């Protein structure tokens, strides 16, 4: 059984995604949940309190993805993490408009986002280093090659969904995953290629 | 918003490298690493006997754990000491009862199990 607080947060995220944080009123959130504004005020003092809780949950979810790093050495471990990134960004795409809306202005949320993004980038670089050490990826042919690749992967993970929206295309988990794996594919060693074709490819083109 | 724990980027990088190398460095342990469990297994079948004796002007409480099938295999552990012999006896009693708890019932040894030779 859901508790009301959780239901309010979920409805808020849905409305924030559709309308942006600023244009959502408490009345709308209450209607979406199916409770009175008075009841809503009992759970959250004001909209700032809701926004704060939404962000708190958002960062917690994001950190949960980080914690999945290298649970197993196989390529499927990264695949599972990509799937989690997809679910996270598909569920919370309001963050992006919020982030750029207040550009130039640094809020605590901005700082937290930036920290998380730095972490994400470090994790991606470190993942590629691991795959090179394991022999799944070819050794660097030129300096900084995999740093650039990590940045490209990062961009794909973050901006794949907004890109699809801009081009009025639908996006699903498989196309998202393919978008990321296509970047890595050219760098696979024969061993990595073999593992990829056995474990990942059948999921992407079934 | 309450301040959250923050990790330095350099520290996080080092952490990730540590996780990476874990895969290459960590190896399966040997069965002999569990030797200590095997070595101490006999302690599960021991009777507990309290022993009070004078030591440095006090009454020291020792517990002797003797194997029920071969009482000559035993270990002795000093538990506590007390200036008053009655209190020492009381403490010894409590500690023995605590240590002797066993699902099978309190294990004990008899003089027969010592298997003395009278010739």
TrEMBL record, chain A:
One matching Pfam family:
TetR_N
Domain named HTH tetR-type: which ranges? 2-62
Question: A Gene Ontology molecular-function term?
Answer: DNA-binding transcription factor activity
Superkingdom field: Bacteria
- PROSITE patterns the record matches: HTH_TETR_2 (PS50977)
Whereabouts does the entry annotate DNA binding, in residue ranges?
25-44
From the record, what ranges are coiled-coil?
Answer: none
- What SUPFAM superfamilies does the record point to? Homeodomain-like
Q: Which UniProt keywords apply?
A: DNA-binding
Q: Which InterPro entries match?
A: Homeodomain-like_sf, HTH-type_TetR-like_transc_reg, HTH_TetR, TetR
Q: Keyword DNA-binding: yes or no?
A: yes
- Annotated protein name in UniProt: TetR family transcriptional regulator
**Species of the source:** Arsenicibacter rosenii
From TrEMBL, chain B:
Source organism, top-level taxon: Bacteria
Its name, as the record gives it, is Uncharacterized protein
The upper taxonomy is: Bacteria, Pseudomonadati, Bacteroidota, Cytophagia, Cytophagales
């Amino acid at each position: 059984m859901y508790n009301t607080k959780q239901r309010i947060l979920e409805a808020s995220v849905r409305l924030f995604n559709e309308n942006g944080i600023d244009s959502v009123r408490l009345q709308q959130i209450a209607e979406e949940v199916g409770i009175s504004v008075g009841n809503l005020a009992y759970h959250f003092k004001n909209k700032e309190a809701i926004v704060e809780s939404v962000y708190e949950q958002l960062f917690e979810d994001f950190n949960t993805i980080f914690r999945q790093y290298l649970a197993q050495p196989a390529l499927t471990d990264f695949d599972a993490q990509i799937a989690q990134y997809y679910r996270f960004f598909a569920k919370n795409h309001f963050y992006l408009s919020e982030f750029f809306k207040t550009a130039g202005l640094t809020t605590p949320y901005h700082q937290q986002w930036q920290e998380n993004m730095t972490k994400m980038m470090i994790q991606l670089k470190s993942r590629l280093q691991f795959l090179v050490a394991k022999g799944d990826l070819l050794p660097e042919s030129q300096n900084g090659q995999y740093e650039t690749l990590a940045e490209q992967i990062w961009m794909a993970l973050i901006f794949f969904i907004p890109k699809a929206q801009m081009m009025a295309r639908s996006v699903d988990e498989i196309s998202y995953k393919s978008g990321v794996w296509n970047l890595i594919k050219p760098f696979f060693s024969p061993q990595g290629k073999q593992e990829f074709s056995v474990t990942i490819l059948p999921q992407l083109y079934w | 918003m309450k301040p959250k724990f923050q990790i330095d980027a350099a520290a996080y990088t080092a952490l990730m490298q540590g996780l990476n190398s874990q895969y290459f460095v960590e190896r399966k342990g040997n069965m002999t690493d569990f030797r200590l469990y095997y070595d101490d297994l006999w302690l599960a079948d021991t009777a507990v006997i309290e022993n009070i004796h004078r030591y440095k002007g006090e009454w020291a409480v020792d517990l002797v754990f003797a194997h029920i099938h071969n009482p000559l295999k035993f270990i002795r552990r000093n538990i506590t000491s007390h200036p008053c012999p009655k209190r020492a006896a009381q403490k010894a009693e409590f500690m023995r009862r605590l240590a002797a708890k066993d699902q099978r019932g309190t294990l004990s040894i008899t003089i027969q199990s010592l298997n003395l030779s009278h010739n």
